Amino acid sequence: MKLTQAQLAKYMDHTMLKPEATPEMIDKTVAEARKYNTASVCINPYWVKRVHKGLAGTAINTCTVIGFPLGATSTESKVFETKQAIEDGADEVDMVINIGELKAGNDDAVVADIKAVADATHEKGKILKVIIENALLTDEEKARASKLTVKGDADFVKTSTGFSTSGAKVEDVKIMREAVGPDFKIKAAGGIHSLQEAYDMIEAGANRLGVSASVQILEEAAQQ
Known about the structure:
By secondary structure, this protein is an alpha/beta fold. 46% of the residues lie in helices and 17% in strands. The protein has a single domain, classed as Alpha-Beta Barrel (TIM Barrel).
């Protein structure tokens, strides 16, 4: 496949989730997103106000993470965090599921957790992505988690936090796509460092890419 730099940029959530990110690093990420016109800038909740302000006047969304990176906070905490993030200017929230409940087969608990955050997100007309952390799941659990994400009324299912043992894999995106059908959206995140890797994820079924190496990949796209 071949996309223009501008087309590829619209797949990208330009990401800076490092715990050591300074204000200067956040501002640099915003400036890069503005230069390439990415889909969003994805940052930890503390930085939402700063990023939202920095993206003023653009069509670039402010994206943040909820219950991140473990997913083992209470549903009430996730809902509060979501509402606060949206109030601060977030357009998209990427929440982590309760991985332990999924692995225990407690699907109702997983769906309830997602649905509570989905309701808080959609009440304000915003977008919810659900991180299932594939590195910790069997193939059966990946498929089941993807289906539960649909059932929980989210907008995307997402592969990874980027903070576990591995990130996005083409095989996982294919499993997720088969599980959710042709229309539900998928975000691949973690470990995407080259143009070919970005293309591979899109060809496997990804609608959005969570990438910290956006500049490198987009510059590579400009030279193809």
